[in-house]
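Q: My collaborator sent me two sequences in one message, no labels, and asked for predicted structures for both. Can we handle them in order? The first one she listed is below.
A: Yes, handling them in the order given. First sequence, followed by its C-alpha cells:
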Amino acid sequence: GDVIHRMLTATQYIAPLMANFNPSYSRNSTVQYLDNGTVFVVQWDKVYLQGKEDVGSFTFQAALHSTGRIVFGYKEIPVPVLQISATQHPVKAGLSDAFMVLNPSPDVPESRRRTIYEYHRVELDTSRITSLSAVEFTPLPTCLQHQSCEMCVTSELTFNCSWCHVL
C-alpha cells in the first residue's frame, strides 16, 4: 500500500518465519526472489539468527501463486522455532492483514490520529515448522470471482452473496 506506518509491519505480513535474522552475517546468506508472472517466490537461504549464529543456518521460502495459493517451504530449520528468542524481534509465522484510518484528533483539530485495524490473521503452530516441511494456504471462494448476476446468486458460498451491477 501507499501508507507507511511502523505498526503496519506488525499487522501486515506474509511470513513463513519472522525472527531476528541477520543476512549480513555470512557471504553465503542470501535473500532472493523470482517472479515468472505465475508465481512470486522469496527465499531466505542460509540466514542466521542475530547473536545465535552457532545454532546453524535457516533456509526457507514463500511462494505466492497468481491463483491465490500460498506455500511456505522449510528446507533447513536447525532448532525448534519455539526455542528462538523473541526479546529482540517478534517470532511468528503466518499471514496478517490490516488497514489504517486517519481520524481527526480530539485534542488538536488540525491533526489526524492514525488507527490501525487488523482484520484478519492466520498464525501457524510454530512447533510444527521443521526441516523438510511445508504449509499450503488455499484461498476460499469469494463473491469477486463471479462474472455474472446468475453465477453470484446461485453460488453455494458459505456467506450471503449479492450481485452488484456496478462491479
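Q: And the one she listed second?
A: Here it is, processed independently of the first:
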Amino acid sequence: SSRVVQIQSQMSERAVELLGLPEDRPCLLLDVGCGSGLSGDYISDEGHYWIGMDISPAMLDVAVEREVEGDLLLADVGHGIPFRPGMFDGCISISAVQWLCNADKKSHSPPKRLYRFFSTLYTALARGSRAVLQLYPENSEQLELITAQAMRAGFTGGMVVDYPNSAKAKKFFLCLFVGASGTLPKGLGTECADGEEIHQAKFTNERTRFRNAKGKSVKKSRDWILEKKERRRRQGKEVRADTKYTGRKRRPHF
C-alpha cells in the first residue's frame, strides 16, 4: 500500500541522514534487506550509489522489474557480508535486522548469526563510516542481544530513538560507528515539554584510553586487574578487596 511505501521512504531518508555522509562526493552504500529497492530509490535520488542484499528472490524480482539503479545480491546476511574490506562508505537497513533474532532452522543460532553479520559488516565498512539500522525489536532482550553482538564485533555507538513518547511514530535506529567514535545523534521528538532532553542509551565505553585496538583493557593495567578480580568474584572465588594500591607499580629495589 502507498502508506507502507510512504513510511518506508521516510525511514530510508532518516537512516541516510543519520549516516552523516560527506556532501561533496557520491558515496557507495550497502542496503541490508533492500527488498524491492525503495530505500535504494532515495539513495539514488541523493546522488549516491548502492548495492542491495536480500534473502527474498521475489522481492529482488520486483526490484529488477522496477529497474532500480543499484546492484542486487540474493543472500542471507546471517552468513556474513561478502564484500572486500573497507568497500562501503556506509550501510543502511530498514526493518530487517530483527529477523536475525529468529532461528528459522535447527542449525540457526541467533547470537552467532548476528555476530557473523556485524563482524563482516564492520570489515566491509570504511574506517570512520557508519551503519544505521532501523529495526522493530520484539522486546528489550532482543535489543540487548542485537546491540551486544554489534559491540562485540567492534562497533561503538548506540540506539537513537525517534519520537520515544509516541506509540505510533516511535522508531529505533541502531547507529553504529566504525573506528573513531562519533557523537550519537539526537532522536527526533526527544525534547520534553519543559525543554529537557530524554537521555538515550549510549554504548561507548568512557574509559577507552586504557583500551587497546580490540577494545580490551591493556594487560596488567589497573582496569585489567579490576576486571579480572570482578570476573573471579562472579565465579564465586575468594578475591582480595580492591584498594588504592590495586594495580600500582612497586618501587624498584636497589
